[in-house]
Amino acid sequence: MRVFLDHNAGSPLRPEAVAAIVEFSRSRHGNPASVHRSGQSARKLLEESRRCVADLIGASPREIVFTSGGTESNNLAIEGAIRRAGARRRIITSSIEHSSLLTPLMSLEGRGFEVVKVAPDREGRVPSETVEALIDESVALVTLGLVNAETGVIQDVSSAGRRANEAGAFFHLDAAQALGRIPIDAASIGCDLMTLSGHKIGAPSGIGVLFVRESCAIAPVMLGGPQEGGLRAGTQNLLGAAAFGAAARAVSATMTEETARIAAMTEALLQGLERSIPGLALNGPRHGRVCNTINLSFPGVLGESMLIALDLEGIEVSMGSACAAGAVEPSHVLVAMGRSEAEARSSLRLSLGWSTRPEEIARALEVIARVWRRVADAEPVVAEALR
Amino acid sequence: MSARVLVAMSGGVDSSVAAAMLHEQGYEVVGMAMRLAPEPAAGARRRATCCSHEDFEDARRVAERMGFPFYVIDLRSDFTARVVENFVSEYLSGRTPNPCVMCNREIKFDRLWRRARAIGADYVATGHYARIRRDQTGGFHLMRAADTSKDQSYFLFSLGQEELSRTLFPLGDVTKSEVRSRAREIGLVNAEKPESQEICFVPDGDYARFVERAAGSASVRAGRVVGPDGRVLGEHRGIHRFTVGQRRGLGIAGGEPLYVREIRPDSADVVVGPRSLLSSAGLVARDVSMVRAALRDTAIRVEVKARYRQHPVPAMLRLGDNRRAEVRFAERGPAVTPGQACVFYSGDEVLGGGFIERALEA
């Protein structure tokens, strides 16, 4: 039995998404911009999919811009906003964001922008009062993750949003890891821009969305045809959009029940591991995380060894991020949370999802405890190095 | 269930074929590439190092093609602490280190073995050209490779019984040309890849500059170049720039060719002399280890290699206390270079070895 506990990297395709892909592959073709009937049919499918995604976040379909994924959405949000931000030169973010936010922001520093990165507390929460206090009329953009990918911490962004609004700054949320895990209501959350990613909810990778509030004017980055309200030129990824729409519809229909089911399994996994592994530490708060994510420091071992040993036993988890050569690097999120590099190197992320079953959790509990004992025995990391 | 083997893969043809052979023999192969070298300075030639991104990709493609799992692991801090720092301090002490021997002892057959146990592997395998034989009593013998022109047993002398019992050298019985043709047969992408030559973490071959960068210029020991009669012939910019037996780069013109005879770390003097003064009667080795237990204070007839590219010469070995040994050549031999490995053979068998501390004049 292989047990996939890396949904935050991308969930397996939901059956509804598979069905949409199969149906599209069999019977659909055409360009949604074409005048003929095939074009009209393609356009209908695209707009139905747009509505499904809009419904999932309480938005209007007109506010949904299809992109190639979360990374493009984040890039479009940042670049599109700052091009409409006049003389404002400050950007507020946090130090625990995804590289698809932090890397484009770093490039803006070279273009005369000042990027302020708010540090999280030890639990991984970005203090909202700190963010709020930084926002004034000099701020072009406030951009924050709604849910942290590595710890699952749900950030309190409402006051920052209100303050950004008052100050006339763009407010962007990266909700890639929040979609399907917590209810999102675009109308009440108070953001101008919001990033969504298809493969985090069981659609394929290569399709994403940037929610752009109707009243919000950003500049396009990709130039060309008039697709996506002029904000994203290029023929849409219709296959991806159809699958994203189908997955979004499935999530809308089952989210309450699904998140409760996942939360129970996640809690069972956490408590079971805490019982069998003395000294195991949860990186993040006990409460206030999404239903599916736990980030754990395993005492006396390297996460790199655990990751490989677990993979060979059929348990798939993740650690930090991969470098270009394919080795794992310790998580910048955990380091920002005040963990030592050694602590960060002993940490793994386990993330559940729609396909996770209780028997997989039982199996994971048995294997992880056994593998941890073997790794700790064979390749101990001395305690001093861990502190 | 078949035995699980961790195969150290560099992306080169040897370790790729080694992994493929074990896979075909039915072992459960787990390929692993090690990040070892510290990050190269900006602008350095990346392709030349053994840990470059492209090499890992070559190894990954081999694993994909053969269908076994492959991982890249990060052992940079271990490699720096256990190989690079030793390399630097040996040079600064006037010795000429052999980091490949150190890497085998400290990284591949110690650090990597612990990783192997952690992932549930029974063996570590590498693409070294050497053989392991097991006798009727269960003892392990380290033997030269069938392809004597590629034999790498010299670099492996530090392996003891325990290490040999859990090590596999699939290339021990094949020749390099067979390895290349095996690589082509199974369609490995790197069949024609050139041999790596330099020390992997000094891709440009400029050891002196590497040592200066790593240690800082304050650690550099400049001094005098002294002739056989004690006369000062000139000055030099650091003892780490010299190796015993070296001829070029002494900065002294004219007359009979001069060679480095001795490096004196205390005074930072580099003593030079004509070729006739280079020979030695033997050597003293430290940090000696024997593949199988051997008697101390007994003369053992051996053949010795005092550097990799050298034919073994007959000698008498006498093991002493504190892992030291004295080696007396049957005939006066060429210069021995402190810091290099000296390896004791009996025919095709490696008996053990150590690191040269000093030459014996008589």
* Number of DSSP-assigned strands of chain B: 17
Q: Would you identify the regions of chain B where 5 or more consecutive residues have pLDDT less than 50?
A: 41-48
For the sheet with most strands of chain B, the description reads: 6 strands, antiparallel, barrel
How many whole angstroms does the radius of gyration of chain A measure? 21 Å
Mean pLDDT of chain B: 90
Number of domains of chain B: 3
CATH topology of the largest domain in chain A: Aspartate Aminotransferase, domain 2
Query: Under the CATH scheme, which class of the largest domain in chain A?
Result: Alpha Beta
Distance between the termini of chain A: 36 Å
Q: Helical amount among residues of chain B, as a percent range?
A: 10-25%
Counting copies of identical and different chains, the oligomeric state is heterodimer
What's the CATH first level of the largest domain in chain B?
Answer: Alpha Beta
Detailed description of the structure:
The complex is a heterodimer of chains A (387) and B (362). Chain A has 387 residues and is an alpha/beta fold. Chain A is 41% helix and 14% strand. Chain A is built from twelve helices and 14 strands. Chain A has helices at residues 15-27, 37-56, 70-82, 99-109, 128-134, 158-167, 186-189, 238-276, 303-312, 332-336, 341-345, 358-378, and strands spanning 3-4, 64-67, 90-94, 114-118, 139-145, 170-174, 193-197, 208-212, 281-282, 293-297, 315-316, 321-322, 328-329, 347-351. In chain A, strand 6, helix 7 and strand 7 (193-197) form a beta-alpha-beta unit. The longest helix of chain A has 39 residues, at 238-276. Chain A is globular. The two termini of chain A are 36 Å apart. The model of chain A has no long low-confidence stretch (mean pLDDT 95). By secondary structure, chain B is of the alpha/beta class. Chain B has three domains: 4-185, HUPs (Rossmann fold, 3-Layer(aba) Sandwich); 221-277, Roll (SH3 type barrels), CATH 2.30.30.280; 280-360, Translation factors (Elongation Factor Tu (Ef-tu), domain 3), CATH 2.40.30.10. Chain B is 24% helix and 29% strand. Chain B has seven helices and 17 strands. In chain B, a hairpin with a 5-residue loop joins strand 14 (313-319) and strand 15. In chain B, helix 1 (13-24) crosses helix 6 and helix 3 (76-92) packs across helix 7. In chain B, 47% of the residues are buried. Mean pLDDT of chain B is 90; it is low at 41-48. Classes of the chains: A alpha/beta (387), B alpha/beta (362). Chain A binds chain B through residues 301, 304-305, 308-309, 311-313, 324-329, 374-375, 378-379, and chain B through 4, 30, 33, 35, 51, 53, 56, 60, 69, 71-74, 114-115, 117-120.
